[in-house]
Every structure is written in structure tokens, then in C-alpha cells.
TrEMBL record:
<feature type="transmembrane region" description="Helical">
    <location>
        <begin position="690"/>
        <end position="711"/>
    </location>
</feature>
<feature type="region of interest" description="Disordered">
    <location>
        <begin position="1"/>
        <end position="31"/>
    </location>
</feature>
<dbReference type="GO" id="GO:0016020">
    <property type="term" value="C:membrane"/>
</dbReference>
<feature type="transmembrane region" description="Helical">
    <location>
        <begin position="599"/>
        <end position="618"/>
    </location>
</feature>
<feature type="domain" description="ABC transporter">
    <location>
        <begin position="114"/>
        <end position="356"/>
    </location>
</feature>
<keyword id="KW-1133">Transmembrane helix</keyword>
<dbReference type="InterPro" id="IPR052215">
    <property type="entry name" value="Plant_ABCG"/>
</dbReference>
<keyword id="KW-0813">Transport</keyword>
<keyword id="KW-0067">ATP-binding</keyword>
<feature type="transmembrane region" description="Helical">
    <location>
        <begin position="535"/>
        <end position="558"/>
    </location>
</feature>
<protein>
    <submittedName>
        <fullName>ABC transporter G family member 3</fullName>
    </submittedName>
</protein>
<feature type="transmembrane region" description="Helical">
    <location>
        <begin position="461"/>
        <end position="482"/>
    </location>
</feature>
<dbReference type="InterPro" id="IPR003439">
    <property type="entry name" value="ABC_transporter-like_ATP-bd"/>
</dbReference>
<dbReference type="InterPro" id="IPR027417">
    <property type="entry name" value="P-loop_NTPase"/>
</dbReference>
<comment type="similarity">
    <text>Belongs to the ABC transporter superfamily. ABCG family. Eye pigment precursor importer (TC 3.A.1.204) subfamily.</text>
</comment>
<keyword id="KW-0547">Nucleotide-binding</keyword>
<keyword id="KW-0812">Transmembrane</keyword>
Length: 730
């Protein structure tokens, strides 16, 4: 304790000297406060306000339908933060809250209370010295308030947020209790929303289109009802001016800035009108202006009745003034929970007052972030014009221990336990599921959305169509004028082989777009807006028109330029065969993309696979002559090039007769068997077609397994399973 006291004195003296001139009162007598009175008064710094020991603070909230129930009203009559005096949450000044534009009245949202008691989360390998990521955390959040979880990097902020939302990965174990409206029951679908740190949006849709399709995927009911909730979400997130603008986000497509894009991702969760909204880093990658606008918008959302719980790394002074409660973490330990102003008083009581002209969040993180020790160690011999390089010379480990010990022995910690006890004494209104859109509806919505997106973005299929046409024209001009003589058989086989193989290889250009679709699926499936089956079926149906367009356009150019047999039925088989080849190739690319989840490695793998398929397709060497252990089994039988080329050559040469001299003739099968191995059966080409169709569905079945069971551990049914496991472990 002597070491802690000496370090505290050093901290107070250094921070005072570094933050204010000698002629002024030391910074230990300055506190960041918001003046009582109007909500629209500016934030200011005042000299040493008077803090009394205990005062009852009444916090009143409307009991919305389906909200916190009687337990909330009873609980909020108890003291919230005994260290506060003459200050309550209603008198805390904040920037003006924007009103809904256009005369649209946004409906209230029925919030819900959430409380957590002795919450501990362990994950193997997450920490260097301990598996505990969150350690015995206590806290609560009320409807109509913003509760922020703050701390340095790797302090357990996101883990705590995911634990409250029931979205921990299967490798994590949770101990303790989480109560929603006083009940331990899990939060059903639609009762809460969760916004990830990085959310995948669809840049080729407008804001209104994106939210409308999201509403169609999430909500049951009629279309006009979904349009109304979309407009409510747009108004709630102050997106009226951007509703008809493309989201964008690509180098070739201008769109919204990062702040507006972040608000769109939050609005997507608001279409369900959740009681509780969890947001992981709402200010992620935002500048100061966008961050302030974001927090003012969230403050307006909270004023509508929604319960907001989110994480944040640090904030400006203006943003800090909007918070209602703060949960301060460091290395999984709770250093403080309570009102934001009480947190400033807590730091002052522990010997770390906030210097004047410094953001409170910066001050908090400076005191508890161990990374600053490295900076001080590097620059300990360096002096600037004002003296020491750092205004805080105290060891952060000592500061963390001091703050934790001060909080555990303070009246603030006791008031938190009292509030949690009040909230859990009696169960309130049970949250109910709001229902889901049917599977058929989701498939129809995803199909139509895929068609719209694919038609607007040129790198989906339009680029591949151009590449296919260029390739076909090159092959057509290279192999034009072959004629139908016996001597042209080998060259014609080569033309078909080059067309099928190179066209399949060029399909790799669609890998980035497939990755984008998979990311969108994962983003939607994480909140149960979509599923593996409906995603695959919607993507499959949406891609059929574009793949068929590429098939028929390329096939017609190749067929007539090379001069294949002039028969309509043979031409249609050629088109269908190549269409099936494209379907199989699309499924193969989806499978590789799901396995690697990286563009570089997926592209490299696909190129290698296509090269092996080309070598084993039977053109460079007759299939009967290939080494059986490796090339025949399994490469020949898993190569869709083999079945496609064999079917096309059977379509061209079976039934054909070639004259040898003036009196002798041979069949097409006899003419080609020296250059390529085909079957003499006239129905063989249809069997090859069926094999291609089976491979197309087989690859998509593999993708379904990968998405549903292998690579998608935090979505859909796994959410409830993980929650039940956590409850049983307690």
C-alpha cells in the first residue's frame, strides 16, 4: 500500500503540473461535469464541484409494453450511484438530439432491462497467463439508456458483449447469470439485435432497398407493414437524406461514407424493433464528426425506449457526455460500473483526477492501458519544453490494482449489487419471438435480390461474359475453316478441348464476387436472417439466367465460327452441355471459397485444380493410356472437363460418316477414337449430361455442409445450443 500511495502522489503531482499553468489551480481540483439544467446546454469544465457522500437519485422510466415490467420500476427507486450529489441522468447536458425529419413520427420501442451477475468467460489460448477473458463482472442496463463497455484493446469488451447477447463461440465457457427482465430465459429471435464491428453491406443497392430486402428476410406479415418499419428505421438512424443513394463502397462505385454505412448496418437490426440492441464498436473507423453524429443518433434511439449496450475503445469529450453508464474493463477485470460522472469521481478518489483539457476516455485509457509503459520506457530520457514527456509517470499495473481495489470497497459497487438484486427479485414480462419469414419467402427474396445485384455489378457476370466472348472469338478465328474432312478430326477435338478448358479457367474471375456473397450470407446468418439452404438456393436460381446467357452467347459464336454440324438439335445440346459445365464450375468455386475464405489461396487452388483436370481430360493422352493409380483414379472421374468434352464430341461425331477414298467409309466413332476416347452408345452423351448435373448439385451440397456444419459455428440453431450449454455449465 505504501508503494501504491507513493505512486498515486507522483501521479497527482505530475498530472497537475503537465495539464495547467502554475498560476492556476492544480488539475486535481478540476472535474469534467455537465451543468444541471437544460438538455441542450453545452458541455463545460468547472472548478471542484461539491460531492456529497450519499443521496438518493430517482430514475424514472416508462413501462413500455413488453418492456422491463414492475421489477424495473421497483429497482430504479433505489440509489444508483451514492457518490453523485445533486446530479441525475436527466440533468446531464449533451449535444442537441436531432428530431425526425419530414414530419414523420417514429414509434416508440419497448425496451427491456438486462443485468449480469458474477459473469466470467473463459477461452483457452485467449490470454497469455489466464484463460479468463472476463472476470466476475456485474452490471445492468435500463430501457432508454446507453450503457457503454470501455477499455483498452484485449480487455474483454467484445467478449462481455457477446456473452450478454448469448453469442459466444462454442470454445468459450460462461459462468454466472444473465437476467432479461428479471428472468434467466434466453432472448428469442427478434427480441434483440446485434451489430458486428464490421458488417458486410451490398453496395449496389440503395439504403431503402437494402433495408427493405432485410425486412423481407426477417419479418413475417404483409409488404406494407414491412415498408413502414423500414421507414421507421431510416428515420431513427437519421438516414432520410441518403435513403435513395447507393450504399457503394467499391472503387468504381461512389456511395456513402463510413459513418452513414455504419448507421445503415444498425438500421438493418432496427427493422425488427428489438428491445435490446448490442453494438460492437459503433465508432469503428469513424472520424470525430461522424462519431459524434453516430452517438447523437444512438442517443435519439435510446430516447425512443430501446436499451442500448455497446463497446467503445475511446471517445471525444462530446461523445463521452452522451453516455449514461460506463463499464470500465482492463484485462477482464471490472474497474468501475456506474454513471459516467461517478466514474470521474471514482478516478479522483483513487488518486487519478482527470486533468483539464483532456478527454475523460483518454484519461481512463491512459491510466489502465499497459501499452503506455513501453512508450515511457522508450522515451524516459527525453525531455520536451514542458518537462517530462508523459504527464502520467505512474506504472499502469499499480494504477489498475489501485482502481480495482478502490471500486470493490466503494459504495458504487454496493449500489450495483443492490440494483441487480432489485432487478432479479421478481420476473417481469417475458420477451416473445416476433416470428420469422417463411423459407419460401426467403428463397424468393434472395433470388430476386441476387438478380438485381448481379445485373448492377459488372464484376459478377458481365465481366465474365466479356471475357468469354473474347476467348470465343480468339478460338473461333484460330480454328475457323476446318471443314468436315477426316483430316480435320484431330484439330476439331483440340478446338472443343480448348474451348471448354479455357472457359472454365476464366470462370475464376468470379471468385471475388462469390466471396462477397459468402460474406453477406455470414453477416445475415449471424443474426438468423438467412440460412445455408435458402442462401444456396437463392444464389443458384439467381445465377441461372446469367450463366445461361454466357452459355448461349459463347456457344453460338464458337459453334458457327468453327463450323460444327449444321443441326439445331445438336446445337441445343452443345448449349446445354456448356451450361451444365458452367454450373459445375460455379459450384466448384463456391466450395473452394468456403474452404479457404481467402481470395489468394482460393484462386491458387482453383488454378491448380483446373490444370490437373485439363491434364486428365484425355486430350494430351488417351484416357486408357493414363496411369491408373493417380490419373485415372480419381482425377479422370472427378474432372468435369472429361464429361463435358466427351459429351460434346459424342454429339458431334456419333452418327457422322467419313469417306475414305471413293468406295470406303468409316463412322465418326472410328474416326475419333485415335484422338479421343468416347463411347459408341448414342445415349452416352445424355449420361454425361446427367453426370454434370449431379456434380453441379454435389458441389452445392458440399457448400451446404461447409456453411451449415463446418465453417459457420455462430449462426442460426447454434445460438440456442451454445446458450443452453452455457446455462448447463453454470
Amino acid at each position: 500500500m505504501e508503494e501504491i500511495q507513493s505512486q498515486s502522489d507522483l501521479y497527482r503531482s505530475s498530472s497537475s503540473s503537465a495539464s495547467s499553468p502554475t498560476s492556476r489551480v492544480p488539475s486535481s481540483h478540476f472535474f469534467y461535469v455537465r451543468k444541471p439544467g437544460s438538455l441542450r446546454q453545452p458541455i463545460s469544465f468547472e472548478d471542484s464541484p461539491e460531492w456529497e457522500d450519499t443521496t438518493d437519485i430517482d430514475v424514472r422510466m416508462e413501462d413500455e409494453a413488453g418492456g422491463g415490467g414492475d421489477s424495473i420500476n421497483d429497482a430504479t427507486a433505489t440509489p444508483i450511484s451514492p457518490s453523485l450529489s445533486k446530479i441525475n441522468s436527466g440533468s446531464m447536458a449533451s449535444p442537441p438530439v436531432p428530431e425526425g425529419g419530414g414530419g414523420v413520427v417514429v414509434r416508440k420501442i419497448a425496451g427491456a432491462s438486462i443485468a449480469w451477475k458474477d459473469l466470467t468467460v473463459t477461452m483457452k489460448g485467449k490470454r497469455k497467463y489466464s484463460d479468463k477473458v472476463v472476470k466476475s463482472s456485474n452490471g445492468y442496463a435500463f430501457p432508454g439508456t446507453m450503457t457503454v463497455i470501455m477499455g483498452p484493446a484485449k480487455s474483454g469488451k467484445s467478449t462481455l458483449l457477446r456473452a450478454l447477447a448469448g453469442r459466444l463461440p462454442p470454445s468459450a465457457k460462461m459462468y454466472g447469470e444473465v437476467f432479461v427482465n428479471g428472468s434467466k430465459s434466453h432472448m428469442p429471435y427478434g427480441s434483440y439485435g446485434f451489430v458486428e464491428r464490421e458488417t458486410q453491406l451490398i453496395g449496389s443497392l440503395t439504403v431503402r432497398e437494402f433495408l427493405y430486402y432485410s425486412a423481407l428476410l426477417q419479418l413475417p406479415g404483409f409488404l406494407f407493414q414491412k415498408r413502414s418499419v423500414v421507414e421507421d428505421a431510416i428515420q431513427a438512424m437519421s438516414l432520410s437524406d441518403y435513403a435513395n443513394k447507393l450504399i457503394g463502397g467499391h472503387c468504381y462505385m461512389k456511395g456513402l461514407r463510413s459513418g452513414e454505412r455504419r448507421r445503415v448496418s444498425i438500421a438493418r437490426e432496427l427493422v425488427m424493433r428489438p428491445h435490446i440492441l448490442f453494438i460492437d464498436e459503433p465508432l469503428y473507423h469513424l472520424d470525430s464528426v461522424s462519431a459524434l453524429l453516430m452517438m447523437v443518433t444512438l442517443k435519439k434511439l435510446a430516447s425512443m425506449g430501446c436499451t442500448l449496450v455497446f463497446t467503445i475503445y475511446q471517445s471525444s469529450t462530446e461523445v463521452f457526455g452522451l453516455f449514461d453508464r460506463i463499464c470500465l474493463l482492463s484485462n477482464g477485470n471490472t474497474l468501475f460500473f456506474g454513471e459516467t460522472l461517478a466514474c470521474l469521481q471514482h478516478f479522483s478518489n483513487a488518486g487519478f483526477p482527470c486533468p483539464i483539457m483532456q478527454s475523460p476516455s483518454d484519461h481512463f485509457l491512459r491510466a489502465i492501458n499497459t501499452d503506455f509503459d513501453r512508450i515511457i520506457a522508450m522515451c524516459k530520457n527525453w525531455q520536451d519544453d514542458n518537462g517530462d514527456f508523459s504527464a502520467v509517470n505512474m506504472d499502469t499495473a499499480v494504477a489498475i490494482r489501485t482502481l480495482e481495489a478502490t471500486y470493490k470497497s466503494s459504495a458504487d459497487a454496493d449500489s450495483v449489487e443492490t440494483m441487480i438484486l432489485k432487478l432479479t427479485e421478481r420476473e417481469g414480462t417475458q420477451l416473445k419471438s416476433k416470428g420469422k419469414a417463411g423459407a419460401a419467402t426467403r428463397v424468393a427474396v434472395l433470388t430476386w435480390r441476387s438478380l438485381l445485384v448481379m445485373s448492377r455489378e459488372w464484376n459478377y457476370y458481365w465481366l465474365r461474359l466479356i471475357l468469354y466472348m473474347i476467348l470465343t472469338l480468339c478460338i473461333g478465328t484460330l480454328y475457323s475453316g476446318l471443314g468436315h474432312s477426316l483430316s480435320s478430326v484431330a484439330t476439331r477435338v483440340a478446338a472443343v478441348f480448348v474451348f471448354v478448358s479455357f472457359a472454365s479457367l476464366l470462370g475464376i474471375a468470379g471468385i471475388p464476387s462469390l466471396f462477397k456473397e459468402i460474406k453477406i450470407y455470414r453477416s445475415e446468418a449471424s443474426n438468423q436472417h438467412s440460412g445455408a439452404f435458402v442462401f444456396l438456393l437463392g444464389q443458384f436460381l439467381g445465377s441461372i439466367p446469367f450463366l445461361f446467357l454466357m452459355s448461349i452467347s459463347s456457344s453460338l459464336v464458337f459453334y458457327f465460327m468453327v463450323g460444327l454440324r449444321d443441326d439445331f438439335s445438336l446445337l441445343m445440346y452443345f448449349v446445354l452441355n456448356f451450361f451444365m459445365c458452367l454450373l459445375v464450375n460455379e459450384g466448384l468455386m463456391l466450395s473452394i471459397a468456403c474452404i479457404w475464405r481467402d481470395v489468394y489461396w482460393s484462386t491458387l487452388t482453383l488454378i491448380s485444380v483446373h490444370v490437373i483436370m485439363m491434364l486428365s481430360a484425355g486430350h494430351f493422352r488417351i484416357r486408357n493410356a493414363l496411369p491408373k493409380p493417380v490419373w485415372t483414379y480419381p482425377f479422370v472421374y472427378i474432372s468435369f472437363h472429361t464429361y463435358s468434352i466427351e459429351g460434346l464430341l459424342e454429339n458431334e461425331y456419333l452418327g457422322e460418316v467419313f469417306a475414305v477414298g471413293e468406295v470406303r467409309s468409316i463412322s465418326g466413332y472410328q474416326a475419333i477414337r485415335g484422338d479421343y476416347q468416347i463411347s459408341p452408345d448414342t445415349n452416352s452423351k445424355w449420361r454425361n449430361m446427367l453426370v454434370l448435373l449431379a456434380m453441379a448439385f454435389g458441389y452445392r451440397l458440399l457448400v451446404y455442409v461447409l456453411l451449415r456444419f463446418g465453417l459457420n459455428k455462430n449462426v442460426s440453431g447454434r445460438l440456442l445450443l451454445c446458450h443452453r450449454k452455457n446455462n448447463s455449465s453454470r
